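#structure-requests
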Amino acid sequence: MSSFAISSTSTRRSTITSRSRRGWRLGAAALVVGATWSCDSATEPIDIAAEARFPLSGWLVTQDFGTWNPGWNGYHLAEDANAGGGDSVFAMADGVVRATLTGLQGYEALVLIEHRFEDGFVVSLYGHVSTRRGFRARTGERVTRGQLIALVGDDDEDGGDWRPHLHFGIRSGPYSEQGEICGQWLYVGYTRSCPDITNEEYRELWFDPTDFILEHGGQLPGLD
């Protein structure tokens, strides 16, 4: 995926604050073709997570959140972080693994974890992880901040013609297995538009990952 310039931290933080004040909205979608599903019913209560952290040992963003990507005709709903095949991927915060999926168009494999913070629920998404090496956390498992959950996929198993990296997104609201927007799954990598929602409204259903983590007690790798 192409690299984009990173927007200012102050602007992104103000966006997060305004979203929090408006409350949580159900949202975002993805195209799922021939996927293998392992999903949790999401019925048991979740303990409140104290802090968040970055999911890699380093954090070099190669495509920022909210950048327009003409190849996908939408805004990027995550941060792409530079990584090598086999690099460790860690849980952002305490939570419950809701899905470990393979065979997804554009992702190949990903992990979804539901978290509960003082200001609401979110779902963290870890895309382009390795199928070959296997997931390191099970669907339905309670995980802790910094727990190993997956490994970054190699170039031939990361879902597309891009170099290995982690696609890391944070969607507002609790996990939903059945929800759809614009007729598609909720956990897409780029915004969609249809008569019910614009690309800009769609983008507001997700958080800027760096700002969210910094706002919830995390520090950039190498500083904590």
